[in-house]
Design goal:
- With about 270 residues, the protein is an alpha/beta fold.
- It is built from ten helices and nine strands.
- The longest helix has 13 residues, at about 5-20.
- Bound molecules: S-adenosylmethionine.
- The site of S-adenosylmethionine has 21 residues, from helix 6.
Length: about 270
């Protein structure tokens, strides 16, 4: 028998969630009631949420760019802020683009590109086996290829010099600040998805260093950063021989560095 979804039952679930500190208790109550196939399952789901597990882990999915993205415990939960990066990438991608998502986590960015760019050929990679399992589920319908390993290491060599859109939402929280993140992140998400090293840009520097070898001429690398990382992130991509622009969204509270491999010059041009 499905869970009781009467107004009284909804109020009772919301009250339990509110008492546990959930700010959007009514909305979460609706989601949990819809997800539960029985009263017993609802009790278990509410218990997990009241104990502090992120809602997305309890539901098993997160919303991203209008898609339901599967997320397993410990896998980085795609942030709504990152929809800004997705939109920037979609605007740059032509039909049939070769899209690579390094540090793909659940594969949310790659899935958003696959859904929005006709004929996109999508590849994704992550070092974390749990993330790779999730990304494989999320990209199966789009025919995406998912690899496990360090940054570009596991990608097929045939992609070298052919990537039109390189998505790299890498970990960018400075090590000393990981402990200051909200408990849902610091206590539940894998540290490898959060910790960007001393200044938060260690992984981005490695991605920038490798990007010119993988990007097609005119191809773009897009990475989310924090506002105070703009100067250092721009320096990292330009040091790698890429051009850099920075885009911002107040609505999403997001900053993205958009780097490009210069298009090859006509040898006859001056
Ligand atoms: C901030 S999360 C972003 C995940 C996903 N791109 C998103 O936007 O939801 C960073 C991801 O980078 C992965 N990662 C960290 N270091 C890595 C490395 N050296 N090679 C590959 N993946 C790495 C983590 O496992 C994590 O999934």
């Amino acid at each position: 028998m499905p869970a009781d979804d009467t107004p009284a039952a909804r109020s009772a679930v919301a009250a339990r969630l509110r008492a546990a500190g959930c700010v959007y208790a009514e909305d979460e109550a609706d989601l949990l009631i819809s997800a539960a196939r029985s009263e017993a399952e609802l009790t278990a789901l509410v218990g997990r949420r009241a104990a502090g597990q992120p809602l997305e882990y309890v539901l098993g999915w997160a919303e991203f760019c209008g898609l339901q993205i599967a997320v397993d415990p410990t896998v980085f939960i795609p942030r709504r802020r990152t929809e800004f990066l997705a939109g920037q990438a979609i605007a740059l991608a032509r039909p049939g683009a070769v899209v690579v998502d390094v540090c793909c986590g659940s594969g949310a960015l790659a899935a958003a590109l696959a859904a929005a760019v006709p004929g996109a050929r999508v590849h994704a990679a992550d070092i974390d086996p749990a993330a790779v399992r999730c990304a494989r589920r999320n990209l199966a319908a789009a025919g995406g290829h998912v690899y496990q390993g360090d940054l570009f290491g596991p990608l097929p060599a045939g992609l070298r010099g052919r990537v039109d859109i390189l998505l790299a939402n890498v970990p960018y929280v400075p090590t000393s600040e990981v402990g200051l993140l909200p408990p849902e992140a610091r206590d539940h998400e894998a540290r490898v998805g959060l910790d960007g090293g001393a200044d938060g840009l260690e992984v981005l520097r490695r991605v920038a260093g490798g990007a010119p070898g993988w990007l097609a001429p005119g191809g773009h690398l897009l990475s989310e950063i924090s506002e105070r990382q703009v100067a250092a992130a721009t320096a990292a991509v330009t040091a790698a021989g890429l051009t850099a622009a920075v885009t911002r969204s107040v609505e999403h509270d997001a900053t993205v560095v958009v780097a490009a491999r210069p298009a090859e010059q006509d040898p006859g041009a001056r």
